[in-house]
């Protein structure tokens, strides 16, 4: 099979896996790193993978991004300097990313990246499985984005993966965890040693967020200072407990007639969320605009961001809210919110599934909002420079001197 290279109209090179002597041209003086994620659809892990790839390529690394499908709403955010490698078959069957095993092996044999960073558990176990059978110098370093074992939406395939993780993760050269809580969950539920896990927070381009937050958006409540806007931005999934979110907002609006809710995003539970809104008679007070390409204007103009999740990893959306000074009320779920909000110093933490507590915290925040400058200062701790400095120290210790 010869490699084919094509333009997708968005800048980056899209290639199939090279198997002959016509491998992708690269500068031999630049270290090559590879990232592996199914696609670039809207999601926290996908956004993080893009941000890290973009950041490291500007620091002098050659970056390959391996994808099952070179598509998704976030595709336009990828740097033109990052090379996309689409692993055949582009439309994976029921076995999912496991269909890529022979092509991933071919890629690793030809390109020989210094490290492969699979994001999400499915690509991670496939990468670790193939690495067992290859005599390769590539370090396989999974990135764990959410607390292990807390997935309430696990499909039968997910459940199989969940059983394989404890067997294969100990074979990792190192594991990147996006938060201390995620690292703790791996130690508690797998044989992985804590010394084999490095916590590297997700980098967030806070200055770009602040710049985009100045752009106008077409939503009457966002631009209306007479409304108290309660916001959610994210995937509509069981993990987020948006049914509880809407029930908490009902209690808020019963106490504050000026309150309005915006639930932005999409996902498998969108119809259920809409049904809950209608059942509670909130259709005139809750807006569901779907996917929004600039959520930061919504954040900077909203009065409080409400997160009702049952579990997380390191929810980047909270850092984005801090970056523009948006007050936060969040469940104290595993894991991430407590870390980001400094044990409640930079936002209010409420027990999981406590709709009364969420409603009370929202009303209290609306009545007495925190200093936005203090929130913005906390977001700076997650800005790219300090985070990528940590990434480079990690690479030096675990990849280039291993």
UniProtKB/TrEMBL annotation:
<feature type="domain" description="Glycosyltransferase subfamily 4-like N-terminal">
    <location>
        <begin position="42"/>
        <end position="208"/>
    </location>
</feature>
<dbReference type="Pfam" id="PF00534">
    <property type="entry name" value="Glycos_transf_1"/>
</dbReference>
<keyword id="KW-0808">Transferase</keyword>
<dbReference type="GO" id="GO:0016757">
    <property type="term" value="F:glycosyltransferase activity"/>
</dbReference>
<dbReference type="InterPro" id="IPR028098">
    <property type="entry name" value="Glyco_trans_4-like_N"/>
</dbReference>
<feature type="domain" description="Glycosyl transferase family 1">
    <location>
        <begin position="220"/>
        <end position="379"/>
    </location>
</feature>
<protein>
    <submittedName>
        <fullName>Glycosyltransferase</fullName>
    </submittedName>
</protein>
<dbReference type="Pfam" id="PF13439">
    <property type="entry name" value="Glyco_transf_4"/>
</dbReference>
<dbReference type="InterPro" id="IPR001296">
    <property type="entry name" value="Glyco_trans_1"/>
</dbReference>
<feature type="region of interest" description="Disordered">
    <location>
        <begin position="1"/>
        <end position="22"/>
    </location>
</feature>
